[in-house]
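Predicting holo structure, zinc ion bound.
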Amino acid sequence: MRAWECPNCVNMNNRDLNASINIMFEGVKMYMERELTELQLN
Ligand SMILES: [Zn+2]
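Done. Tokens:
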């Protein structure tokens, strides 16, 4: 059990997590937009 968390490390971890989530959503968004464009063209 961790009794204490270093605020710096927690912030860094949160930033890394947020960055990962943002990158993932960007990828999904790009994929969805491409799929929608193909659907509209066909
Ligand atoms: Zn730390």
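The chain has a mean pLDDT of 91.
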